[in-house]
Amino acid sequence: MRTIAITGANRGIGLMFAQHYAEAGARVIACCRRPETFPPPLLGSSNIVVRALDVADAASCERFAQDCAEETIDTLILNAGANKTPAGLGQFTDDEWRYLFELHTIGPLRLVRLLLPALLRSAAPRVIGMTSRLASIAELSAENRGFRLRGASYPYRTTKCSANLMLRLLALEMAGSNLVTLSIDPGWVRTEMGGAEAPIAAAESVAKMSRLIDRVSAAESGQFVDLEGNTIPW
Ligand SMILES: NC(=O)c1ccc[n+]([C@@H]2O[C@H](COP(=O)([O-])OP(=O)(O)OC[C@H]3O[C@@H](n4cnc5c(N)ncnc54)[C@H](OP(=O)(O)O)[C@@H]3O)[C@@H](O)[C@H]2O)c1
To answer: ∠ at Cα 227 (37, 87), nearest 5°?
Structure first.
């Protein structure tokens, strides 16, 4: 039985991943910073265990890793995230920006480091980042739809961009092992973050991403892709 650990699993895309993998027969470690917010109906699933994890809090990451000391984790989905739009100049504080670095880049790499023994016990470990094509520098232009809709969004874009680089570097550093990383843009998805106008349902996005996650090979490790598997230029 595969074990899938998902951060930010109490709502949105993370919750849909938890539901999807539990229904597919995997064992799911649903990580939530407030476990009591995990939807009670899903607690009935014998395939789901809910554990406390605040990705932005080092002590919480360490406690979580201790709880996982005996685990084998096949797939770690770094899903927890936050956004504040449009976040142009003067619309965010230094502390809010620092916090997103902690949530999107520093915390996730710390988690990987702490969970490395559990990941390397798997025959095919995968570390998957939920990222955004808003972090693509190559696609940025004043005419770009993402820029027009979201504005500069300095904290979100820079911290997701550094998260992409972090997973690319991890892929290179771990190339001698069987650990594979992938940064996936889930599309514009109807969640609290994506909003009601978003065209893609969380179930559709997760169904497509899970197919990608299942088939990703070592040759593709470290790539930045959309939910169809197309490469997004850095
Ligand atoms: N929706 C989209 O259109 C879209 C597009 C591109 C990328 N993404 C990315 O996809 C991921 C999921 O997005 P979503 O749309 O599902 O967002 P969402 O509905 O706002 O859910 C965000 C999740 O992250 C959790 N979280 C936030 N801070 C956390 C922390 N410090 N520790 C642990 N968990 C934390 C939240 O938990 P709480 O309930 O405790 O706050 C929640 O479970 C994010 O990384 C986002 O950047 C989303």
So the answer is: 65
